[in-house]
Amino acid sequence: MGTMTIGEFARASRLSPKALRLYDELGLLRPVRVDPTTGYRYYDPAQLERARLVAWLRRIGMPLAHIRDVCELDGPAAAQKVRTFWARLEADTATRRDLAAFLVDHLCRKDTTMTDTGTPLAIRYAALSDTGLVQESNQDAVYAGSHLLAVADGFGTAGASAGAAAIDTLKRLDTDGIPAGNLLNILEDTIRQADRAVRDIAGAEPSPHEVGTTLTAMVWTGSRLALVHIGDSRAYLLRDGELFRITHDHTFVQSMLDEGRITPEEATTHPQRSLLLRALVGGAGADVAPDIRLHDVRSGDRYLLCSDGLSTVVPTDTMCQAMSSTPDPEYAVRRLVTLANRAGGPDNITCVVADVTEQRQ
Ligand code: MN
Question: How many domains, the chain?
Fold first, then answer.
């Protein structure tokens, strides 16, 4: 059986001899023979396949410890590992992209958002919360003011109080005194306070870790729009006739979708589709990790915040149609709640609709 020298093997696998020595030391790719006197490494041509796999995995930036795991798995399991790694990397990149966009914006823009014609922007809004047709009480909470829009969907024995406490904490952001440059820090602090308020409420219940709330909110400083989100309530943007979802559900089903384990069709009927991975919740240990990001704002944009009582029963194209065909936010929220109730209203339904408009002097 012909073995290859490390030089030959390096050329054939496109890995450098130096990399091959490292992979040997790490147990990633052991030579078949090491000459006891010279220390030269020899490889079997059959090892080329594994060497190429290692080289490819390095090229997508996978850490060596992960590569070792992938090499030990069979095809489908290895594929799943690569898919998971890539999904995490993309999620991480998306977070950093948002932060980079914010920094660019922060460094080169004046503090006041103006349209092309120099007119300042303002928001026009309406909110509506409805118990629906099946639940006995409404555990959703909502707030809409000229600087703050917020939706919370409480769950557990004190769900209504949990949602209300979170929104109550956020209310202090409904002021025009927030310096745009310090917005992200202020949001982080406020969310931490909201989390503490929810924990206090949950702590008085028999099963604290089953009591909590989602929270999806927008803060408008007069020049910047920030989005805070944890859980499975949602924010959408209607722009140029298209409805974009701008939040990511923190649910078990969404994470399985992200990793390609289930299809979007399977997600809509999955038995555990309401299982939350993140929320403001009681019990010890859990660290609150909301998504916080800045959004660019244009005159004519229409935003929708809603609880899952709307988004799980009304299809996105129906929501888009209702959002596009109702000039007045007040009418839009009523239309959306009606649609959810027509679809059976199995859950509490809460909507906030806000239009970005040019401010009249
Ligand atoms: Mn709900």
Answer: 2
How many residues would you count in the chain?
361
CA–centroid distance, 3 to ligand 1, in Å, is: 64
Residues 221 and 309 in one domain: yes
Calculate how far, in angstroms, residue 307's C-alpha sits from the geometric centre of ligand 1.
6
Q: What is the 194 CA–ligand 1 centroid distance (Å)?
A: 19
Which helix H or strand E contains 194, and what residues bound it? Answer: helix 183-203
**Ligand 1 centroid distance, CA of 232 (Å):** 8
Q: Which helix (H) or strand (E) holds 87?
A: helix 75-108
Between the CA of 29 and the centroid of ligand 1 the distance, in Å, is 51
pLDDT at 325 over 90: yes
Q: Give every CB contact of residue 50 below 8 A, 6+ residues apart in sequence.
A: 29, 71
Residues 24-53: pLDDT tens digits? 988 889 999 999 999 899 999 999 999 999
Distance between Cα 346 and ligand 1 center (Å)? 9
Backbone angles phi, psi at 317, to 5 degrees: -70, -30
> 301 and 134 in contact (C-beta within 8 Å)?
no
Q: Does 207 share its domain with 328?
A: yes
Residue 79 domain flag: no
Q: Please give the Cα distance from 141 to 129 (Å, whole number).
A: 7
Q: How far out from the chain centre does Cα 63 lie?
A: 24
Residue 82 within a domain: no
CA 280 to chain centroid:
15
The reply to whether 238 and 288 lie within a common domain is yes
CB–CB of 42/34 below 8 Å?
yes
Q: 163 alpha carbon to ligand 1 midpoint, in Å?
A: 11
Model pTM?
A: 0.73
Q: Contact, 207 vs 155, CB < 8 A?
A: no
- CA–centroid distance, 344 to ligand 1, in Å, is 14
**Domain with 212 in it:** 91-358
CATH number of the domain that 156 lies in?
3.60.40.10
